[in-house]
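ugh finaly. both done.
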Amino acid sequence: MYRLACIAIILSAFTTYSCGQPKTQNDKIAYLLDVLEWEKSVNTQIEHKKLYYSHLQISPEDRMVIDSVWHTLDSGEVRNRMTKTLAQRFTPGEIDTMYLFFNSPAGRKFRKKEYETYGEMDALFSEEYKILKLIEERTKGTPAAAPANFYKANRPDGIYLVERPLTEEQNSYELGQMPLLKLDVFKDISTIRNTDYSMQLQIEFTPAGAKQFYELSKKYTGRQIAVVADKTIITAPVIQEAMKETKITISGSGNKNEMEAIVQRLKKKMSK
């Protein structure tokens, strides 16, 4: 009976592969990139960088260079570079095996090499990132101070509803006058690494805070909120759904040091 079940599973996999599934090597690699969300992760990083650099006060010449970088790093180019790298690291036979059965020996190798391979792919865009960094350093003030207006908020500490988000014309948030919640709803805050190796904030609420945030998230699903500390917007996530959990995660656009700085800033406010 066990052998019959195994044969049925293998035949099912073979049938799925043979009927209607991608056949070319590039199609299989594209499938793997989608499943592992590597391409999505890089595109998300690029979008975060676009938003950040759109608020830097830079010269028209530098703006043209930045626009050229974004033009180079369109979604087609991102997939093209990642596809080539994956094809170089793994043989066609290994890609076929991973595509059919992720727990095969080749699939185990893939998972073992996942972090290393992702690091190589991220390095593919280092030249463009260097150009952006040079322009950032030419702006007045420190990199953190350059987009200062973007983060300022003349509000007491708390969680606010964003009345008007950032746009190309509007380089600062417009927040509600009164906080929806105070920061004392937070019990703890830390950073965690996501499966795509990006950094996230993990916020734990007090029991009472979790109930209050659930009511807030239920009422404002789809809306953007802003966490303000020291008259600075620390993070401004969009509420995706009503959340009853005592712990939530917030995706971040910063690196590990930047996200840790956010954590330390909020922890200081929580300890007061």
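ok and the 2nd:
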Amino acid sequence: MRLGLAQMELKLGDVDYNVKKAKELLDVAENDHVDVLVLPEMANSGYYFDSYEEVKTCSEKIPTGPLSKELIKWSRKGRLVVAGINESTDDGLYNSAVIIANGTHLGTYRKHHLFGSEEEWFLRGPNEPQIFRHDNLEFSVIICFEWNYPERIRSAAKNGAKIILHPVNSGNYRWRDAMRTIAIDNGVFTASANRVGREGDCTFSGESSIINPNGEIILKLDSQSHQLGWIDIE
């Protein structure tokens, strides 16, 4: 299985730009025959908003929004993609990850453990970890800050998850140390896609990484580039 990470440079509030940047890396992933791909947290909108109205303006419905549609197109030849989405629903907004496989909306994971100002904008998702299945792959999803709650990953691993797919929006590297521990403790692969560039006072740290069950970093991207990386795993 060829597992890929789309490390993205985004613009806050510019949906068209962000979808264009996502499509650039989706095209590279298609040319490189990537089977499973992870994009960062809130890849359609950016992150550090000043008001609820700003967040809402940049949100999208799943799976009919502009980024969701591009992901559906990309996945049609048997591929799987997980991407962070600023999601609009009839109930309100969620910090979500859309899961799309083989041209179909497989599911949506909604972040439960919200961080900082997220609590002002978003509703909480369910507290139970979810297991998703595509072909012979069983996997679970967490979003960024949820690396602080290893019991969720432990429960997912006990219920069959072999890999944790992890959209990230971070300016530090603590998440990677935590994911190494998570990989070792649970015997799983982890795949974390971070951002690069600046947004307000935050410089995103990049270095998106894939870690094997021995805690070894088997793929690490650089700290500055909008780029795709991948590695073959069994």
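summary for the 2nd one i guess: Helices lie at 15-31, 52-57, 66-75, 118-121, 150-158, 174-186.
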